[in-house]
Amino acid sequence: MSIPSKYDAKSVENKWYDYWMKHNYFHSEPDEREPYTIVIPPPNVTGVLHMGHMLNNTIQDVLIRRARLQGKNACWVPGTDHASIATEAKVVAKLKAQGIDKNDLTRDEFLKHAWDWTNEYGGVILDQLKKLGCSCDWDRTKFTMDDDMSESVIKVFVDLYNKGLIYRGYRMVNWDPEAKTTLSDEEVIYEEKQGNLYYLNYKIEGSEDTLTIATTRPETIFGDTAICINPNDERFAHLRGKKAIVPICNRVIPIIEDEYVDVEFGTGCLKVTPAHDENDKMLGDKHNLEVVDIFNEDATLNSYGLHYEGQDRFVVRKAIAKELEEKGILLKTETHINKVGTSERTKAVIEPRLSDQWFLKMEELVKPAIEAVLGEDADIKLFPKKFENTYRHWMENIRDWNISRQLLWGQQIPAYYYGDGKEDFVVAENINEALELAKEKTSNFELQTSDLKQETDALDTWFSSWLWPMSVFDGIRHPENEDIKYYYPTNDLVTGPDILFFWVARMIIAGYEYKGQKPFNNVYLTGLVRDKQRRKMSKSLGNSPDALKLIEEYSADGVRVGLLLSSAAGNDLLFDEALCQQGKGFGNKIWSAFYLTTLWEVSEDIEQPEASKTAIAWYESKFQKALIEIEDHFSKYRLSDALMAIYKLIYDDFCGWLLEMVKPAYQQPIDAKTYQAIISIFEENLKLMHPFMPFITEEIWQAIKERTPEDALIVSTWPEAKPINEALITEFDFASEVISGIRTIRKEKNIAFKDAIGFSVINNEKINPTFDAIIEKMGNLETIEYVSEPVEGALTFRVKSNEYFVPMVGAIDVEAEIKKLTEELNYTEGFLKSVQKKLSNERFVNNAPEQVVASEKKKEADALAKIETLKASLENLK
């Protein structure tokens, strides 16, 4: 088999992905092995791969590929989320471009368009994940609107309703006027924005008196139904029992008293608009105030807005301020900073709105989920641990969950109305069951299905995805099936901290409610992907690179390494394309190392040199020590650190040292024993690298020798722990410094490597001669001679207290050398003085951290050793 000198990712990646798919390596069925299960955080069905997905799914693939190598039955369930608000918005926009108004369609007609959209674009992101190398069990791909998934959602809704946990209530909700639906509290993002505080004069009925209120929203005066004063505020005692007249609309409203009013804010008089502020609604309920809703569902004003009817709230705000000023009602305007709620999905400013909605009681449901993460015997671990505080804040301040959405795309709430009253409904899994319940409830056995009308609202998308770890294994509909019993609870969940409450906490709640146990063991929370300027990646900023173009340019392996090199758990990733170039470069380094081994002629007749034997023994111990470190990083979900340890092991120790130590002389063969050992070591290296760089490692693995499908790298075995010879590692570290010293002298004195040189050492450190053969080879030394006295006229260097002597080769400018060494000696002596001055300062030594003091002491010892070496070198030249 001819091996090309350069690696070509484009020709390799599709080949091996197709091979893995053909041989069904990604598919899992329950068996006698230990399961290792991950469920994908389902991306939006109409989404495309962005950098956050790239990071998240690379991490999951690393974990799943490693588990597969460890002999576990690895199952990674992929899928997509129907994303009610986002998807419906896209379908509505597409229909609008075709001249079709959503409101002119029946539900079934709209859903046909939504399914057409989903079928056209729904698989895009999953296909892109394949390009990244993700080894998902594609046979298990789920979609939250699949029939079985929807059936599970409806079953849970009915169950929770029958338990008395779901109820219908007329509440103040967060209304998204762009998506025209309610949102849960957690889907509202509060941002500080600068606005204005408008001071308005209201007349007092039957007198010339006025009162002044301050408001940030003058357009809402049409919804005023009272003015409230604090009963303890003597400034307004004269207003008690009187009525005020609302400007422009001239509605007469009562002046009420309540201690809720902050006497320090604004003027101390509060306009009360129960339909458009949650606190005002509570005041309205307490004082039996009229409720006047002035907005349409798109946040334009309705008929209560008089001549502003049909205009947007923000347009009206400017216009009404001008009108109020012209009429002498607006006294002044001040700038004012306040928190404004915006929709997480559409970015529209949220409007508080009263409406009938469905809610899930959370107070009792949440208790097992709090204990599971924060209890003394916590079953679920968050990585990093710092997110426990965020989790605690959310869970201990939880409110009932608004689970209804005024959307067509989603699971339709299974409530069926049989009358005109708000309570004239039954809840059932289907219309036939609903009919039987309605007959029982009404004692009207003449009822027919045509008499029932299903609730038009759909369920919040999160109400389906909170069941994900169970529903993907059909654990809701068939709780005792083989899959759910084998794969649940899952092992690791990898997701972003921004949905710790939205999704993670809710899955934990659902897990304990429906399986009586946790849905997963560990939650690995990735950071956000930011650019070099620390800006969050977004389309609007234009700083988010095209994922597929990155793969095209740097290879999937290169991009995976680039993402993970700077991605410590829970910390934001500062993405730089240079990291992908580094990842690509690492792949090229590994390929070059492999290509080098293919150029060697192998001889069975040569005895293994001592240098090669020692080098191999050293690397095997070095490998085992790195393996312990790598396993520790994996156990703590420090995947970036694990990758870095592998990177250093292969780049520095294997490519930089081992191959150089065993490489045969020019045009000479390598002994068979050494060659086989190197190939075996290479294979172990490939196993370590495979989870991170699956394509190039499989390509090299298969190129080393012909393999059967059962022997593919993807299903080979993770390296096993073996004894470590610590002495070899320590001795090599010393020997490598000696080799570096020789190379430095050769470079500085222009001594060609082909020229063998003499070498002498005063072995004050009593170093074993284990690596002498390697030092001779790597330094091209004639011999190594152990001496007790300095060698006159030789160039010297020192490693710790050992002195090394290299006879001068060829002509040397003695005066220039003395000048150079003297300058270096003077600088080092000056540096030593500064360090010793610091160490003689008792205050510094007593107060500085221990490691800082230790570092300064090491600098002192190194400087002293260097001074001694420089003086010896100068003495030899004089």
Structural class of the secondary structure composition? alpha/beta
- Tell me what the CATH architecture of one domain is: Alpha-Beta Complex
User: Unreliable runs, pLDDT <50, ≥5 residues?
Assistant: none
Q: Termini, distance in Å?
A: 61 Å
Described by strand count, sense and barrel closure, the largest sheet is: 7 strands, mixed
Mean residue pLDDT = 91
User: Total number of helical segments?
Assistant: 27
Number of strands: 31
CATH superfamily of one domain: Valyl/Leucyl/Isoleucyl-tRNA synthetase, editing domain
- Output the radius of gyration: 37 Å
Per the principal axes of the C-alpha atoms, what is the gross shape? elongated
Helix % is: 40-55%
CATH class category label of one domain: Alpha Beta
Q: What share of residues are in beta strands?
A: 15-25%
* CATH topology (fold) name of one domain: Isoleucyl-tRNA Synthetase, domain 2
Question: Layout of SSEs?
Answer:
Layout: H1 9-22, E1 35-39, H2 51-69, E2 73-77, E3 79-80, H3 84-97, H4 107-121, H5 124-132, E4 142-143, H6 147-162, E5 166-176, E6 181-183, E7 188-204, E8 210-215, E9 226-229, E10 243-245, E11 252-257, E12 269-272, H7 278-286, H8 313-326, E13 330-343, E14 351-360, H9 367-374, E15 381-383, H10 387-396, E16 401-402, E17 404-405, E18 415-417, E19 425-427, H11 431-442, E20 453-454, E21 458-459, H12 462-465, H13 468-471, H14 482-487, E22 490-495, H15 500-514, E23 520-525, E24 529-530, H16 547-554, H17 556-565, E25 573-574, H18 577-599, E26 602-603, H19 610-635, H20 639-662, E27 670-671, H21 672-689, H22 694-704, H23 726-748, E28 760-762, H24 772-779, E29 785-786, E30 794-799, E31 802-807, H25 814-839, H26 842-847, H27 850-877
Helix pairs in contact: 1-22, 3-4, 9-10, 9-15, 16-17, 17-18, 18-20, 19-20, 19-21, 19-23, 19-24, 20-21, 21-22, 23-24, 25-27
